[in-house]
Amino acid sequence: MEGDENLEITGLAPIEEAKSGDLTFLSNPKYVKFLERTQASAIILPKDMTCPPGKSVIRVANPYFAFAQVIPLFYPPKPFLPVGIHPTAVIGEEVLLGKDVAIGPYVVIGDRCRIGEGTVLFPGVILGEEVWIGSHCVIHARVSIRERVRLGDRVIVHDGAVIGSDGFGFAFEGGKYHKIPQVGTVIIEDDVEIGANVTIDRATLGETRICKGVKLDNLIQIAHNCYIGEHTAIAGQAGLSGSTRLGKYVRVGGQAGFAGHLEVGDFAIVAAQSGVDKSIPPRVMVFGYPARPHREALRFEAGVHQIPQVLKTLRELRKRIENLEKEWKAYAEKSKDH
């Protein structure tokens, strides 16, 4: 702690909006410009970041994570739903419910489902037959989880997500497409969070697997038989084609697209809007369309920006060559006459 240790903090706010009495934080260098003029009473900062005089500062190793620890002090978590089964819920046969389960209005649970202790199903959730959900999961409103899908413990699924829909598999024969039965499943391991309106297709055969600790933003498409390794994070509107395999701790930017049947190594980084058409080795950063290694992509982008000047120079050189040819032709004709 640097500054006044007796400050009274009454709220939390972003650094650019904070007022007196607020605690804020700074972890992204893009927001350093707000550091001097913020009205916050105290700021959580990295240990090595300089701060203008007169500011009260709490120095930590990871300001973003530290701020996350503070938020529940001002916004205590509230119970999602009362424990029990709402009278409008429809429960199938041979369903096993754990202790302290909360099932909201108009939830539909298929036959032979299993729901673990402390799990919450918000209004309108639909579970197909033989869905297994672990303990302390939160399934938000209007989520659809199809037959035989498996969820581990502490999984969060946000509104409108669909898990276990049919993979996009068709065989073309006789002038039309014939549907290939999608008889596999989806396995979601522990501590996964799935954003709103994400779609995760079931495997044609076998499984589509989302490993423990994976974080999926909103509006992501995961096709059949994909594999996403532990603690990988994927930003919104990204799309994985069938049988794509991502390693552990991979980071994928928004709107990135992956062709099918390729592999991305552990700790790789795929920048936003990249088009990945071939496998990526571990610990490599790529971006662009098609995606290239970082340094190569930078050189390519630099070259693209030089194209207008190159074309201008080329036109000037062509004109000079044409003039030289005219002069040489005139000189040759004159020499012939003499």
Question: What's the quick description here?
Answer:
This protein is of the alpha/beta class and 338 residues long. The chain is built from two helices and 37 strands.
Rg, Cα atoms, Å:
29 Å
CATH-assigned fold name of the largest domain: UDP N-Acetylglucosamine Acyltransferase, domain 1
| Count of DSSP-assigned helices | 2
The CATH superfamily of the largest domain bears the name Hexapeptide repeat proteins
Instruction: Kindly state the number of beta strands.
Output: 37
* Known CATH architecture of the largest domain: 3 Solenoid
* Number of self-contained structural domains: 3
Distance between the termini: 96 Å
Strand order of the largest sheet: 5-8-11-14-17-22-25-28-31-34-36-37
Q: Which range does the strand content fall in?
A: 25-35%
Structural class: alpha/beta
Overall form: flat
